[in-house]
Design brief:
mainly alpha; Amino acid/polyamine transporter I; globular
Amino acid sequence: MVLFFACVAMLVAGYFIYGAWMEKIFVIKPERQTPAYAMGDGVDYVPMSRTKVWLIQVLNIAGTGPIFGPILGALYGPVAMLWIVVGCIFAGAVHDYFCGMISIRNNGASIPAMSGRYIGAPVKHIINVVALILLVLVGVVFVRTPADLLTRLTEQAISNQGVGAMGAAVGTVSESASPGMSTDTLTLIWTCIIFAYYIIATLLPIDKIIGRIYPLFGALLMFMTAGMLFGLIFEGIPAYRTLGLENGISLGDFFSNFHPKGANALPIWPLIFVTITCGAISGFHATQTPMMARCTENEREGRFVFYGAMITEGVIALIWCMVGLSFYPDVQALLAATAKSPAPVVFDSAMKMLGTFGGVLAVLGVVVLPITSGDTAFRAARLQIAEFFNSYGINADQRKMGKRLMITVPLFVIGIALTMIDFNLLWRYFS
């Protein structure tokens, strides 16, 4: 736990010291009117309090990445914690802050529009295509993932098999169909429900659905994360009890590769950087920050909203990395637990440290994260397409519901069609 608290302290210090320096480099202008007021339309450009904007930003950027990635990264040993801290302070938070602030200075422009202005039209077209494909894939993948988890939770509730069936919800027990209803049918029902929510969240003004439901999602996420933190503290883990540091902190051990498959097969460089992305740095965040740039009330709030949201994601990543490093007796046990998915680690650790109620919250927290990234992925795609049309003189005024529907309907037709593709193939392209 000494290592964990040292890393959290560095993240907090990074926010106040390095974040303040980035703010100074950007030269904020508090007197400058932000797009929320200058471009206010009551739909996408809506001023909201900095706390609400920060919370939405955290949920937008944090899919399952800051949970699953750090758990898998823990297989490499304590060096995973170092990458989260260094990556978050000097890369991820800087990336998110400047993406958000540059968007504010450009009337809430999306990443393709900003690329076109500062780099050139050819780059704009390339980024437009790449970003749009990414957003649709994110939306589709984050329909399938929570639908599968909710299906298994539903099977557990129907079959009333208690904790044993709850384990099936995260892959620790074999699947079983619910009486009178097949697994495929349940998955289809949950997929339709999630798609219906995504369509509503994509179409309606941001303060009507996302602004109201996200505090509930955020409370669930924070409760789960805080619960895991207290669980770690009161679990009685010795001060230096992490994989690789059982006998105290040794500089040589700290940078050693503890992965059971060996340093030659899975070297720290460069695999730690692609194993832990969200929680350290993610290019996907660039597609999400412009949405909150359109809702920020003052430029002085930028560091709290954009830099601070990434630091928050870093803390979440550290908690789950610490779970991976300390919950199991050795890396072989952790490797076995993550053989199919890191989800069983979430379930097993939460059930032991928080009890049955905590286990349910942990699974629901995993469900919330992809949903809050999937809904805004489709919303960002709609805004990006509208921005593209407007740049060529085609009226795509998003203040009108009809114009929003003209973009949203084809977008979701494509999204629904993609859910019919084999998930493993879809995941490879998404990754």
